[in-house]
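The methods section describes the discrete structure representation at length, but only in general terms. The central task, working out the structure tokens from the amino acid sequence alone, is never made concrete. Nothing conveys this as quickly as seeing an actual entry. For illustration, here is how one protein appears when written out as sequence plus structure tokens:
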Amino acid sequence: MTTLYNSGLREECGVFGIYDLDGNDVSTTIYYGLEALQHRGQESCGIAVSDTQGPKGRVHSCKGLGLVNEVFKESKLQELKGNIGIGHVRYSTSGSTSIDNAQPLVLNYIKGSLALAHNGNLINAMELREQMEYGGAIFHTSIDSEIIAYCIARERVRSKTVEEAVLEASKKIKGAYGLVVMSPRKLVGVRDPYGLKPLCIGRRGNSFIITSESCAISSIGAQFIRDVEPGEIVTITKDGEIHSQFLPEKPQHAHCIFEYIYFARLDSCLDKVSVYESRIRAGAALAETYPVEADLVVGVPDSGLTAAKGYSEASGIPFGLAFHKNSYIGRTFIKPSQKERESSVKIKLSVLDSVVRGKRIVLVDDSIVRGTTIANIIKMMKNAGATEVHVRISSPPFLYPCYFGTDVPSNKQLIASSHSPQEICQLIGADSLGYMPIGELQKMVGNLPVCKACFNNQYPMDVPDHEIRNLLEI
């Protein structure tokens, strides 16, 4: 499965923050950092910058719907003058797709200005929003990121420093989050106590970076320093030091397993685990659990390719490329009809007939959500002459929704919640189907504690009943 075909699962968001202590403009660097995080969100993006030596509280920002290179032209970047800034790429897991919901959010209040970019989802957003509205707050967006920004701004009024305000606000919010916050003179990063969302720190000369993935650090020629620890608040100030403090809550860590299965970029390393190596191990585990006699192992571009290579190496079956992906087609949003969804797959992806003709194929992908996409791909492969198509999926079946910012649909839309693997195999037209056994999933990440709730219904925190009802009724 891949987002190109709109089969249900989507990216999360990506955040990027930088503070150049030498006073150089950072907007172009943020642009390239966001391009490296484009895989995490393709609906909207934005940049907010400030000059730490200029008028306190003056923030220049720009955001829009579309890809980074569509929203930001060189002339626009030249207008964004400042040596401290944050950026965001978004896929909506809460709130609609609109320019109002694009980030970063910029607040002007009694203490000056505050800009925030957020990856994740709060489970107590409704409760906090109602409290603020009854207190007179007026919201301009439908995203929970604005709730976080208001929490910080309110705490800042009675706090000595912005990091103290962030600490107090973080005690009130519950859920998954990776945040970058820009005040007039400081850059702050915050990671939720469970470690559900990734966040890391880098450095290039006298510039410090806080971002979602290490690939964004390496893409701008910076050096990776370390991951932000779960529950940690890091602050970059003009002294060039990384100041650290921790939230008092210290729950069992539960890193999102789907960062390693699908979301994160292949060249990233999250919490000391290589994304590439984790997917190689996933493919190997599939080969050991579901061996089959076949002539060729192929992966669905791009997310299934690495696991397919791991399957090939472990099984001894040759690895091949069976698809051409058209990289020049624009973004494809949800198609309203089954016929249009099928045609979008054919436009984006074509089968190399000479590769699959007359062969028994092992087709590896990262997940099956609704089943529409994989069924279309299998049909295309058999029309191209494949004699057998054996599907191997590098995640267990999706059975439960996610409440923490990963857009796993409601139970009614998950094919595995109402069909057995045998029934799914028949529905998608495969000759056999093997999902990653949940007991084998840990092999991907070694000893790293992970959240597997969308597979086993064991959530790392209590989810309010109204949230569950709302999602199950979608």
Observations:
- The mean pLDDT is 89.
- The CA atoms of residues 6 and 445 lie 27 Å apart.
- Residues 277-445 form a domain with the Rossmann fold fold (CATH 3.40.50.2020).
- The chain is about 30% helix and 25% strand.
